[in-house]
Amino acid sequence: MTAAQVSVAWIKLADASPTSGWPTHARTLEDELAAILSVAAVRFPNLRLVYLSSRIYGGYAVGSLNPEPYAYEGGFAVKWLIEDQLRGAGGLAYATDNSAGRVAWIAWGPYLWATGSSRAATA
């Protein structure tokens, strides 16, 4: 595959070991996602659609890599970024040809979440 063949992307991003509180962590993640979208527009000239997903439920995390409430709050970064594009704010204006620093259309991808403490049986 070449960079010119990429027209759709799915991005799921989380910061390792976050420590800042609400809403600083989510706003930082939003800025990081916006920067990635800008780079992707240049690197993949035919990118037209990017699905964004937030981190999966982190309530069962035993370490500090990305526990709750950071996983939950990451969903707001995705939400705000989509809202920013709809308003045409922050260099996120959509263009079908990625011209003048514009990014692909962004949409909410799968919202990956846990099913509680249940686990699928293994054969």
Please provide a written account of the structure.
- The chain has helices at residues 24-43, 70-87, and strands at residues 8-12, 49-53, 105-108.
- It has a 3-stranded parallel β-sheet with strand order 1-2-3, with helices on one face.
- The chain is of the alpha/beta class and 123 residues long.
- It contains 2 helices and 3 strands.
- The N and C termini lie far apart (36 Å).
- Strand 2 (49-53), helix 2 (70-87) and strand 3 (105-108) form a beta-alpha-beta unit.
- It has one domain (3-108).
SSE layout and pairing:
Elements: E1 8-12, H1 24-43, E2 49-53, H2 70-87, E3 105-108
Parallel strand pairs: 1-2, 2-3
Give me the side-by-side strand order of the main sheet. Answer: 1-2-3
Mean pLDDT comes to: 85
| Rg | 16 Å
How many helical elements? 2
Beta-strand percent range:
5-15%
Can you tell me the number of structural domains? 1
Number of strands: 3
Order of helices and strands: EHEHE
Give the class from helix and strand content and strand pairing.
Answer: alpha/beta
Which regions are unreliable across 5 or more consecutive residues at pLDDT < 50?
Answer: none
Biggest sheet character: 3 strands, parallel
Q: What percent of the residues sit in helical stretches (DSSP H or I)? A: 25-40%
